[in-house]
């Protein structure tokens, strides 16, 4: 029998925190003898049962809102930079909860020394901060300034050789903010009436929301507080170190890469196979396919076309990436829908069977009283106490949808009111599927639903009537609603597990969304004016802009616009994406001994370097190697502090973008530049200099 921790092992730790002892006594009996009286830790809510849960109004504090605003700006800046460079953005839910705790805890500790502390820092307030920051960051991720909105600009249109006035719109800060304010709040009201069904009735997992909740709960225990303190110290240290910005560049398979600490950090957060898939895609495309296709210039496509023309080599890069992404996305959409329907049927069938058993054998007891433990009863009590009534949520959705139907055609005349109405009739079904599927698998397929909207609405409106802009704008409408639905449910799951009130959570969501609608366009505009955003040869190529415009062109023009043999290649890559996903799921289901599915690459990640290049994949693989060797030396420390180091690397270098952009706007250049050359190239330059 494995010996468990004794009472005295816990006593001092919990007494210091002023929390109930957190354990119960158990007698172990072996062969009729009581061996020893030992202790088992109690459940999460039993640990916190003696702490008062503040009302929903007291969970929303000024310090929480100020912290949320500061962190929202930081994460919006980081996400904007990542989306304009590679488009690969890791989840910041955990980082938001961690930094929210560290900031407020430091403030509370400071004012407590002066005897000015009026309200202790609770896990509910921590959850409110995390929810607000994630909501604001979600706007930065889905606002379209690096994808569907940028695809409307002449910068991207010129790359596609289709600079038709009805299909090009000049970017303006005013209409971008107006569009985001119009469409971003609708999804919040749409899913509120379904929270009880999703979280309590169906008991959906929402893995990211659950993991964030457990992290927040652990922070408010003595050991968790010490660990979080170590986190914040590490982040500050790493963030200051990365001000020594590395700028050395090297050549790799037809592209360049720099040792960017941002992507080293992203690589430490992303799973190993994501980074391996990116490297594999870089080698496959820039190392093999593109050099071979470039040899067909003048045969498959005109050799006189510019390098960024979609009718030349760029067309193969963009449309093969689109084909693989669509294959991956459509497979997951179908998989999630089938799994959703099967799960719902199983849930209803199980409820009926359980109800029959209970009514037959235990007529005096209810199913809930038999099956629920202390934690579930307590969480359900607080979750249902402050529910937002349906008479607020449903009219809210109808009013905001009506407002959008009137406003969006003013911003985009190519979209008629009946187009927007159809989008809002489709949205509830897609939002439910995405929120339910996210609860089962942790996958949000908002971008995939948005790509489907591009194809449908662009072909419906037609090229001459502005179908490209109509498809891209409808993508924004659908993505905003569908992504908000899954993000809202993730955060409500976090709130359910930390006893945060649904009303304080909803307020935090609304506040965070409003912040995001202002911060994300302003930060994008900062980059847009300082750099050549959208230029494939520049520092911020915004790879998804040309891809989204390519999808819209495909919708209005059909496959006839593709260069020779591009359609055949696209079909093969589309089928390959389907087969890779199918094989992965078959191995997950039927092969559990060696878990071979862990080593199957991701089609979506393979496709990303097709257009963008392979420069960032090296950095991300370096991040994976750092975490791997760190784990081999000290696995526990790598698990505990790896996310903190990664967040410091990402935030530190990303925030360097602020002074860098200011210097660029001022027209100032670095006084010294370094470039590393091969030995042969260096000898040639020496010979030239000697001749001079």
TrEMBL record:
One GO MF term: oligopeptide transmembrane transporter activity
Keyword Transport: yes
Keywords: Membrane, Transmembrane, Transmembrane helix, Transport
Sequence intervals crossing the membrane: 64-84, 90-108, 128-151, 171-194, 272-293, 313-338, 388-412, 418-436, 467-485, 506-528, 569-587, 608-632
GO cellular component: membrane
Family: Belongs to the YSL (TC 2.A.67.2) family.
The protein, known as: Metal-nicotianamine transporter YSL7
Organism: Vitis vinifera
């Amino acid at each position: 029998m494995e010996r468990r921790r004794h009472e005295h092992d816990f006593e001092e730790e919990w007494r210091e925190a002023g929390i109930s002892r957190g354990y119960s006594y158990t007698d172990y009996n072996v062969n009729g003898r009581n061996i020893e009286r030992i202790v088992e830790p109690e459940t999460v809510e039993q640990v916190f049962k003696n702490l008062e849960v503040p009302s929903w109004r007291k969970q929303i504090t000024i310090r929480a809102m100020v912290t949320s605003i500061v962190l929202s700006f930081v994460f919006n800046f980081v996400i904007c930079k990542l989306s304009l460079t590679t488009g690969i953005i890791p989840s910041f839910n955990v980082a938001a909860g961690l930094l929210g705790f560290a900031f407020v805890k430091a403030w509370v500790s400071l004012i407590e020394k002066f005897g000015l502390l009026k309200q202790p820092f609770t896990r509910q307030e921590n959850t409110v901060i995390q929810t607000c920051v994630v909501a604001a960051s979600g706007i930065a991720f889905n606002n379209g300034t690096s994808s569907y909105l940028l695809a409307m600009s002449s910068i991207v249109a010129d790359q596609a050789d289709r600079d038709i006035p009805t299909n090009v719109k000049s970017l303006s800060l005013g209409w971008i903010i107006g569009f985001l304010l119009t469409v971003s709040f609708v999804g919040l009201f749409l899913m509120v009436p379904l929270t009880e069904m999703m979280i309590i009735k169906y008991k959906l997992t929402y893995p990211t929301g659950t993991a964030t909740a457990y992290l927040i709960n652990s922070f408010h225990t003595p050991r968790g507080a010490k660990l979080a303190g170590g986190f914040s110290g590490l982040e500050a240290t790493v963030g200051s170190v990365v001000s020594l910005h590395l700028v050395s560049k090297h050549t790799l398979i037809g592209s360049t890469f720099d040792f960017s600490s941002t992507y080293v950090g992203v690589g430490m957060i992303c799973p190993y196979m994501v980074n391996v898939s990116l490297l594999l895609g870089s080698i496959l495309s820039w190392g093999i396919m593109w050099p071979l296709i470039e040899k067909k210039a003048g045969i498959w496509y005109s050799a006189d076309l510019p390098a960024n023309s979609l009718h030349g080599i760029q067309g193969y890069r963009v449309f093969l990436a689109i084909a693989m992404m669509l294959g991956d996305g459509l497979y997951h959409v179908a998989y999630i829908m089938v799994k959703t329907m099967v799960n719902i049927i199983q849930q209803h069938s199980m409820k009926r069977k359980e109800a029959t058993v209970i009514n037959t054998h235990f007529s005096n007891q209810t199913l809930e009283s038999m099956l629920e433990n202390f934690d579930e009863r307590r969480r359900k009590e607080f979750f249902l106490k402050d529910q937002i009534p349906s008479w607020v949520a449903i009219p809210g959705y109808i009013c905001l949808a009506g407002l959008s139907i009137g406003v969006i055609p003013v911003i985009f005349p190519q979209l008629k009111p009946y187009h927007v109405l159809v989008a809002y009739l489709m949205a509830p079904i897609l939002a439910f599927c995405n929120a339910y599927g996210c609860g089962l698998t942790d996958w949000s397929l908002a971008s995939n639903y948005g790509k489907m909207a591009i194809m449908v609405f662009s072909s419906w409106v037609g090229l001459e009537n502005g179908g490209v802009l109509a498809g891209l704008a409808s993508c924004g409408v659908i993505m905003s609603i569908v992504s908000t639905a899954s993000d809202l449910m993730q955060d409500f799951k976090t709130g359910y597990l930390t006893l945060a009130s649904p009303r304080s959570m909803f307020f935090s969501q609304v506040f965070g969304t409003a912040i995001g609608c202002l911060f994300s366009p302003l930060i994008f505009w900062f980059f847009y004016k300082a750099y050549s955003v959208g230029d494939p040869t520049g520092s911020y190529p915004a790879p998804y802009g040309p891809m989204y415009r390519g999808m819209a062109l495909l919708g209005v023009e059909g496959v006839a616009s593709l260069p020779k043999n591009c359609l055949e290649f696209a079909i093969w890559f589309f089928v390959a994406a389907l087969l890779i996903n199918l094989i992965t799921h078959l191995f997950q289901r039927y092969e559990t001994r060696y878990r071979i599915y862990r080593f199957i690459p991701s089609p979506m990640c393979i496709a990303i370097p097709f257009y963008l290049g392979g420069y960032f994949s090296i950095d991300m693989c370096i991040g994976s190697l750092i975490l791997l060797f760190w784990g081999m030396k000290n696995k526990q420390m790598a698990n505990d502090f790896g996310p903190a180091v990664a967040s410091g690397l990402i935030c530190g270098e990303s925030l360097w973008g602020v002074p860098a952009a200011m210097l660029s706007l001022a027209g100032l250049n670095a006084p010294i530049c370094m470039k590393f050359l091969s030995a042969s190239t260096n000898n040639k330059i020496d010979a030239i200099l000697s001749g001079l």
